[in-house]
Design goal:
The complex is a heterodimer of chains A (407) and B (233). Chain A has helices at 2-21, 23-29, 31-59, 80-83, 90-99, 135-139, 151-155, 165-171, 214-221, 239-253, 269-312, 314-322, 327-360, 370-397, 400-405; strands at residues 65-69, 103-118, 121-131, 143-146, 160-163, 181-184, 187-195, 200-201, 204-205, 209-213, 228-233, 265-268. In chain A, the strands form two sheets. A six-stranded mixed β-barrel of chain A has the order 2-3-10-5-7-6. Chain A has two domains: 2-56 and 279-405, no CATH class; 103-232, no CATH class. Chain A is α+β, with helices and mostly antiparallel strands. Chain B has 233 residues and is α/β, with parallel strands linked by helices. Chain B has a single domain (6-18, 25-229), classed as Rossmann fold (3-Layer(aba) Sandwich), CATH 3.40.50.300. Chain B has a six-stranded mixed beta sheet with strand order 6-7-8-3-9-10, with helices on both faces. Helices cover 33% and strands 30% of the residues of chain B. In chain B, α3 (106-116) runs parallel beside α5 and α5 runs parallel beside α6. Classes of the chains: A alpha+beta (407), B alpha/beta (233). The interface between A and B is medium-sized, with 24 and 28 residues.
Chain lengths: 407, 233
C-alpha cells in the first residue's frame, strides 16, 4: 500500500519532468480539455446562478403561502379545460376564512390595471390591487411612510390607498404624498401610506402598484372580478396539510360532488420551482452535453498526443524496461502524465471560466462555487486517466528488446 | 555468495524466431556455465547468435526451449514482471550506444534503477553519487549526456549498471562507439571491476577486448564453437 503511493509520487515526478521537457506540445494537447472544462464549468455556473436568482424571487411569494385561484400558474393541458371554470367568489373566501384551521391569515385579492393621476401627472401600467388589512401579514411588505389599509378602511370600503415607491416617485416629485388625493379611473383616493421598495419579480416591478380596500375596488371598478384567495400557513411545514384542507373547504364551498374534478386551482411556490427546474434541466443537459462533447474531443486529442509520445519515447521505455521497470510502473508513468496534462488543462479551463463568470455576472447572476471549480479540474484529470489508458497500456506492453532497438 | 559457485547455467537452450512462416533458429541447444566472479567474453561474427544469447542471459527474453538458471532461479519460466525484477536486481547492462536518457542528467540516469527497486530518495541519492564517484564522475553529476564525452557517457552507463549491486555486469560492444584511448580506459575500468569481484560478460567481435577476459566463448551459427581459458588467467 505504502509502496503504491510512493510509486505514484515517483511517477508524478517523472511525468512532471517529461511535461517540462515538452511544454509547447503539452499545452497544445490540452487545448480541447481547456475548452471542454471551460464550457461545462461556465454552464454549471450560469445555471446555478439563474437557479439561485429564481429561488430568491420565488422566496418573495413565500414558501408558506398558498394561492387559491381559478387558474393554475402552470397550464400544461389545453387552456380550454380551465376556461369554463366558475369565478372565485367572496363566498369562497368567507368559507376559507371561517373553516381553515391551519391558516394564520386569509386574504382576498383582486387586481386590475388602471392609470393613476395626480394634478397634471399621470402614470399608466400601474397594478391596482384590492385587498384588506391582512395583506400585510400574508406578503410581508411594510409601509415605509404612513400606514397600511386598516381593518376599518376595509370594513367601510373607504377610498384610501397605499402606493408603491415607483408610483410615489413619479407622481410626487418632492411633495409628501401622505394625505394627497389621487385620481384612479375617475375616483379620488386619499394616500395613507407608501410601501417600502420591493424590487421586481419575474421582470415585473412590484413597486408600480396601488393598494386599495377590496370593497372599494369592487364598488368602483366592477364586482364581477375574479378573486384570488391568499392563504398563509401557520407554519411553512403545514403547507401540504393546508393544501388538503383548502381543497376540502373549496370543494364544499363550490358544492362539488364526489367524482367531480376541482374547478379551482391551489397554487404554491414549489410548483413554480418544479416547472422552472424542468425547463432549465433541459438547457442544463444541453450545455453539459456540448461541454461533454468537447471534453470527449479533447480526450481523443490527449489520446492521440499520448500515442505519439509513446511512439517517440519507445527507446526510453526500452531503457526503463531493461533497467527493471515493471509494466505497472510504465503504465503509471504515462497515465499520470496524461492525467497531469488534463488536470493542467482543467485548471486553465476553470481559470478562464472564472474570468468569464466575472464578466457575465455584470449582466446576469453567475457565481462559481469552489465545488464546481474543483469538480471541473478533477473531471479533467479523470478524462486524462480514461483516455490515457490505451496509450499507457501500449507503452507497458512493449517488448524491451524491440523497444531498445528503436532509436 | 559463494565465489566459484555457478551464477549462470544454460542447459540445452534454443531460441527460434518466427519470421513470417519460416522458423529461424538463432541458438541451437547451447549449454554454458558461468561462475561467480568470472570475466567472460562472448565472441562471434554477426548472425552467430551473439545478441540472442546476450538478450537471454540479460533476461530481456526467454528461451524457446531449454533451461536458464540465474543464481538458482529458473528464468525460462518467468513472467514479464518477474523478468523485470531480475533485470533490476541481478543484471547491469552496458550498451554500445550507452542508452542513457538524453534529457536526464548523470545523477537522474544512475538513479533510475534504484527508483524501480523502490528505494527512497535519500538512499538513492547516496548510492547514485557513491557509484558515480567510483567510476570517476563525481564532478559530472549534474551534466546531461549531451554535455559529456563518449567515455564519460559510458562511465555513467556503467555506474547505472552497477548502482543496484547486480550479480552480473553484461556489456554489449562497450567500446564500439569510443575511440581507442577512451575504449582502453573503459576496459581498464572493467578490469578493475572484475578485480573487485564483479562477474563480467562482454559480448564483442574484437579480439583485443576478448584478450582481456579470462575466458572466451566463441559462437558460430547458434552453436558454441569453442570455450577456452585465456593464458595464465
Amino acid at each position: 500500500m505504502f509502496s503504491a503511493i510512493w510509486d505514484t509520487f515517483e511517477g508524478f515526478l517523472i511525468a512532471l519532468r517529461a511535461l517540462r521537457e515538452n511544454k509547447a506540445r503539452s499545452i497544445l494537447a490540452t487545448l480541447g480539455i481547456v475548452i471542454g472544462v471551460m464550457m461545462v464549468v461556465l454552464m454549471v455556473t450560469i445555471v446555478a446562478g439563474l437557479n439561485a436568482s429564481f429561488a430568491k424571487q420565488l422566496a418573495q411569494i413565500g414558501s408558506g403561502t398558498i394561492y387559491i385561484q381559478r387558474f393554475p400558474w402552470i397550464i400544461q393541458d389545453d387552456f380550454f379545460v380551465y376556461r369554463n371554470r366558475p369565478r372565485m367568489t367572496m363566498r369562497n373566501y368567507e368559507d376559507v376564512k371561517r373553516h381553515s384551521l391551519l391558516a394564520s391569515s386569509v386574504t382576498p385579492y383582486v387586481d386590475t390595471m388602471r392609470p393613476i393621476a395626480y394634478k397634471s401627472e399621470t402614470v399608466t401600467g400601474v397594478m391596482l390591487i384590492g385587498t384588506d388589512d391582512t395583506y400585510l401579514a400574508t406578503t410581508d411588505v411594510l409601509p415605509e411612510v404612513g400606514r397600511f389599509i386598516s381593518p376599518l378602511d376595509a370594513a367601510a370600503n373607504r377610498d384610501v390607498c397605499v402606493i408603491g415607491t415607483t408610483v410615489s416617485e413619479n407622481l410626487f416629485d418632492q411633495e409628501n404624498p401622505i394625505g394627497k388625493r389621487l385620481k384612479i379611473g375617475g375616483y379620488y383616493y386619499k394616500v395613507v401610506g407608501v410601501l417600502e421598495e420591493q424590487g421586481s419579480m419575474f421582470g415585473m416591478s412590484m413597486d408600480s402598484q396601488v393598494i386599495i380596500p377590496l370593497g372599494s375596488l369592487t364598488k368602483h371598478f366592477g364586482r364581477r372580478r375574479d378573486l384570488s384567495i391568499i392563504v398563509k400557513a401557520k407554519d411553512p411545514s403545514y403547507v401540504a396539510d393546508l393544501n388538503d384542507e383548502l381543497t376540502g373547504i373549496m370543494r364544499r364551498s363550490r358544492r362539488l360532488q364526489p367524482g367531480e374534478g376541482n374547478n379551482f386551482s391551489i397554487n404554491e411556490q414549489s410548483q413554480l420551482m418544479d416547472t422552472y427546474k424542468q425547463i432549465t434541466s433541459g438547457v442544463y443537459a444541453t450545455g453539459i452535453l456540448l461541454g461533454g462533447i468537447s471534453l470527449l474531443v479533447g480526450g481523443i486529442g490527449i489520446m492521440n498526443i499520448m500515442l505519439v509520445s509513446v511512439t517517440e519515447r519507445t527507446h526510453e521505455i526500452g531503457i526503463r524496461k531493461a533497467l527493471g521497470a515493471r509494466r505497472i510502473q510504465i503504465l503509471r508513468q504515462f497515465l499520470i502524465e496524461s492525467a497531469l496534462i488534463c488536470a493542467i488543462g482543467g485548471i486553465i479551463g476553470v481559470g478562464i471560466a472564472w474570468g468569464g463568470s466575472k464578466i457575465i455576472s455584470q449582466y446576469m447572476p453567475a457565481v462559481m462555487s469552489p465545488a464546481v471549480a474543483l469538480g471541473g479540474m478533477a473531471f479533467a484529470a479523470l478524462v486524462g486517466v480514461g483516455f490515457g489508458l490505451f496509450p499507457a497500456a501500449k507503452a507497458a506492453r512493449l517488448d524491451p528488446i524491440i523497444a531498445l532497438r528503436k532509436e | 555468495m559463494n565465489i566459484n559457485s555457478e551464477l549462470i547455467i544454460l542447459r540445452d537452450v534454443s531460441k527460434i524466431y518466427q519470421v513470417g512462416k519460416i522458423e529461424v533458429p538463432a541458438l541451437k541447444g547451447i549449454s554454458l556455465t558461468i561462475r561467480h566472479g568470472e570475466y567472460v567474453a562472448i565472441m562471434g561474427p554477426s548472425g552467430s547468435g551473439k545478441s540472442t544469447i546476450m538478450n537471454l542471459i540479460g533476461c530481456l527474453d526467454t528461451p524457446s526451449s531449454g533451461d536458464y538458471f540465474l543464481n538458482g532461479d529458473n528464468v525460462s519460466e518467468m513472467t514479464d514482471d518477474e523478468l523485470a525484477h531480475i533485470r533490476n536486481k541481478q543484471i547491469g547492462f552496458v550498451f554500445q550506444t550507452f542508452n542513457l536518457l538524453p534529457r536526464a542528467n548523470a545523477f537522474r540516469n544512475v538513479e533510475l534503477p534504484l527508483i524501480y527497486a523502490g528505494l527512497g530518495p535519500g538512499k538513492r541519492r547516496e548510492r547514485a553519487l557513491e557509484t558515480l564517484t567510483a567510476v570517476g564522475l563525481g564532478d559530472r553529476v549534474n551534466h546531461k549526456p549531451s554535455e559529456l564525452s563518449g567515455g564519460q557517457r559510458q562511465r555513467v552507463a556503467i555506474a547505472r549498471a552497477l548502482v543496484n549491486k547486480p550479480s552480473l555486469l553484461l556489456a554489449d560492444e562497450p567500446t564500439g562507439n569510443l575511440d581507442s584511448t577512451t575504449g582502453d580506459e573503459i576496459l581498464q575500468l572493467f578490469d578493475d571491476l572484475h578485480q573487485q569481484g564483479n562477474t563480467m560478460i562482454v559480448v564483442t567481435h574484437e579480439e583485443s577486448i576478448a584478450a582481456r577476459a579470462a575466458r572466451v566463448v566463441r559462437l558460430l551459427d547458434g552453436e558454441v564453437l569453442s570455450d577456452t581459458m585465456n593464458g595464465k588467467r
